[in-house]
Write a structure and sequence with these properties.
The chain is mainly alpha-helical. The protein has a single domain (4-110), classed as Nucleotidyltransferases  domain 2 (Four Helix Bundle (Hemerythrin (Met), subunit A)). The chain is built from five helices and no strands. Helix 1 (4-24) packs antiparallel against helix 2 (28-51) and helix 4 runs antiparallel to helix 5.
Length: 114
């Protein structure tokens, strides 16, 4: 069986690469969605390292982060509404860039090279 952290890392890098590509093509709804998925996978790596399990849902991830890791929780909590908005609104470069910066911040906290 493949290492769960390696799978998450591979997903992080795939989401990141495709988010950057979408952003370059001015496809901001796609880039925001993929940057948020990158953040979620990074948060899952953080939880896996600390708790020895991977959350099974957004709710489980948020609950764990909120109660035990508020610094990480604040990042995801601030960005989650933009991810939700990507279904019904037209997002812009500013929003995409904000999530991109949060991905960079979380990857630095984890010591993960994107």
């Amino acid at each position: 069986m493949e290492d769960p952290e390696k799978i998450l890392l591979d997903n992080v890098r795939e989401y990141w690469k495709n988010a950057l590509s979408a952003e370059q093509n001015n496809e901001f709804n796609t880039s925001v969605t993929l940057f948020f998925k990158t953040l979620s996978a990074l948060a899952d790596i953080y939880i896996l390292r600390k708790e020895k399990h991977i959350p099974t849902s957004h709710a489980n991830r948020f609950r764990t982060l909120e109660t035990k890791y508020p610094e990480i929780y604040r990042i995801l909590d601030r960005d989650f509404p933009f991810y939700q908005d990507s279904y019904k609104s037209k997002l812009d470069m500013e929003t995409s860039n904000m999530l991109k910066q949060d991905v960079k911040k979380l990857s630095r906290i984890l010591g993960i090279e994107l």
